[in-house]
Amino acid sequence: MNRAMWMTLPVVAAGAVCHAAEPVTEQAVENALREYVTAKYAGDAEGVRDRTHHAISRYALEDTYWGQPCDDWLRRYNWDVLRFYGTDRNNTRTDAPEDARLEIEVFDVARWSAAAMFVSEDAVDLVHLVLFDGSWVVVDSAVTVLPQNGAEPPAQDESERDAVRRVVEDYCRGFYAVDGGKVQGTCHPGLSKREMRTSSPEDGSFSFMRSITYEEIEILGDIYNRSGHIDAETAPVEIDVYYVDGDMAAAKLTADGWFDYFHLFKVNGDWKIANIIFEPLPG
Domains in the chain, ordered, with CATH? Predict the structure, then answer.
């Protein structure tokens, strides 16, 4: 969205260890994911965290709580939990990490963010990455844990594709119609919406993540097009659904002046947006 509408926060984010500056290419994104998963298989927790932003938004859909069946809910795993991969409880650990299952698909690469997925021995991960301090790191993840190592991933569910598309369209048209309630209604209360930013050279040119909360998304929807600078009848709503199974989905919205990458989950029968990475469009 229009950068003039955001307040730049003077906050330095403690990100991963810096690599040599990496290019904005599909191959660079794939290489980063390969390092991430290979470190997981090797039991190298620091290697995993090196390819992960410290404020990762990582969700999995659950339908039990303390072992008892319950309504669907989203379990969030933070950056600290990634140290799990360095323990003996990491059942994907192997002496030949380069030979373990890893199927990567890069959906899209923009100026400083990317959307992708990978299938590993124990999970399907939909991921957003950002080019943070010169390195591609995972900043969002939507995870389906497989019933056992080596199991087949869920089949894509084409019957849900239109439902995902409608939620994304409602999100966009809510901004155009100055309807913050409509925008917020498409989102999960645990919404993570962020943009990767770089400070001015006078501040030392560091990278940081600018966040918008579930509460703020309603406020933003109520003011974004208040001036009428966007014609709601003619403004673009271009949607690409990259992946959808019975529980989670990945999509992209290209709108008037910005684009969003989305992760959505089907929570108690309704698709809700959980993770968003956005960029203003060039020009």
Answer: 26-145 (3.10.450.50), 157-280 (3.10.450.50)
